[in-house]
Amino acid sequence: QDNGFEQFVINYCNEKLQQIFILLTLKEEQEEYVREGIQWTPVEFFDNSIICNLIENGTCGILAMLDEECLRPGVVNEDTFLGKLNQVCAAHRHYESKETQNAKRVTDASLPPRCFRIHHYAGKVTYNVTGFIEKNNDLLFRDLSQAMWASRHPLLRSLFPEGDPQKVSLKLPPTAGSQFKASVATLMRNLYSKNPNYIRCIKPNETKAPMLFTRELVLVQVRYLGLLENVRVRRAGYAFRQLYSSFLERYKMLGKKTWPRWAGSERAGVEALLAELPIPAEELAYGHTKLFIRSPRTLFDLERRRQERVAELATLIQKMFRGWRCRIQFQLMRKSQIVIAAWFRGHA
Q1: Is the confidence at residue 190, as pLDDT, over 80?
Q2: Which of 122-131, 153-162, 166-175, 189-198 is predicted least confidently?
Q3: 3-state secondary structure of 279
Q4: b/e code 24-57 from CB counts within 10 Å (16+ = b)
Q5: Going along 111-261, which residue ranges are E strands?
Q6: How high is the mean pLDDT of the chain?
Q7: Tens of pLDDT, residues 42-65
Q8: Is residue 38 a contact partner of residue 46, using CB atoms and an 8 Å limit?
């Protein structure tokens, strides 16, 4: 209920993580249809980059103005910081305070005077500016870093690399907010360089009790985790997509024209294969390099047909092998019978 500087930077990190989730799942999902030339209606989703920019902008962001107030000479307190926020962010639709509400003639008793409110992706959060400047100025000065770096303990030396005399800088030590911002930027670079897979954990109830499902709590988490947008994008588009080569290699035994070999192009082979199957045309879309299937039921039907066909082919292979083995054995017995009969007639 009472949010300060710590909760502010934590929520900033959550906004950045939500941003990469949106870019890597929802936005890339829709861009793939554009790349493949698939026509469909784009799904609108909330891009929280505007909130991230409000916090981390290098000139007029909240963290930048907080650092400016911490380094400004003269009398500095939270009131001057909040006043600067009200001047710079007054027109931002995701920022509000008592002053901005008064300017718009809005009466809101839930917003105290020494607070500002940010409309985060997951909802509105009110922050009390008390302690912002003090906590942001929690600096480790150079002499302390050099003293820790001079320690004989290798772990302590590794924790304070800035204490190395060869790396001494005359600049002021970075503030807590700027350090956190740099750490978040490093985390984002690492995540963007990888191919992340998301596991979304849902807390079913507040008491951690088994067999208890609180519908309202789960609904809030599903909405704020961005799962509704993800489901809408999947439902509006195609649930399954695969390269033509991979699809043809897996399901070619279902078509008379494609089994056992297909001599033409891979896309033509997939089209010829699916033309023989009773699949509605609206369930399929042919991209430049991939096949798109709308409903999971269609994919399940393909898998069922493939399992039945594999069983038939296995039976056919066994039948041909048994026939070949019996024929070889019969030919050997017939040859032996002729030899035996010839020798018996000669003896007689």
Answers
A1: yes
A2: 166-175
A3: coil
A4: bbbeebbebbeebebeeeebebeebeebbebbbe
A5: 115-120, 123-128, 240-243
A6: 85
A7: 777 777 889 999 999 888 889 998
A8: no
Longest dimension (CA), the chain: 133
Q: Which residue has the tokens 């026509």?
A: 39
Structural domains of the chain sorted by starting position, each given as residue range(s) with its CATH number in brackets: 5-138+174-193 (1.20.58.530), 142-172 (no CATH), 240-298 (3.30.70.1590)
Question: For the chain, what's the residue count?
Answer: 348
Question: Are 82 and 65 a contacting pair, CB within 8 Å?
Answer: no
- CB of 56 closer than 8 Å to CB of 181: yes
Distance between CA 302 and CA 183 in Å, rounded?
Answer: 47
Based on the number of CB atoms within 10 Å of its own CB, is 3 exposed (0-12), middle (13-18) or buried (19 or more)?
middle
Contacting residues for 330 by C-beta, under 8 A, at least 6 apart: none
The amino acid occupying position 316 is: L
Distances (CA, A) of 125 to 3, 4, 13, 221: 8, 11, 14, 16
- Which token pair is 55? 């916090």
User: Residue 121 — very low, low, confident or very high, per pLDDT cuts 50/70/90?
Assistant: confident
Q: How far is CA 276 from each of CA 66, 196, 252, 257, rounded to the nearest angstrom?
A: 67, 38, 11, 9
pTM: predicted TM-score of the whole model, two decimal places? 0.65
Query: What pLDDT shows up at residue 286?
Result: 87
What pLDDT, on a 0 to 100 scale, did the predictor assign at position 340? 95
d(CA 310, CA 254): 9
269, 248 Cβ separation under 8 angstroms: yes
State residue 270 phi and psi, 5-degree precision.
-65, -40
- Phi/psi of residue 226, each to 5°? 80, 15
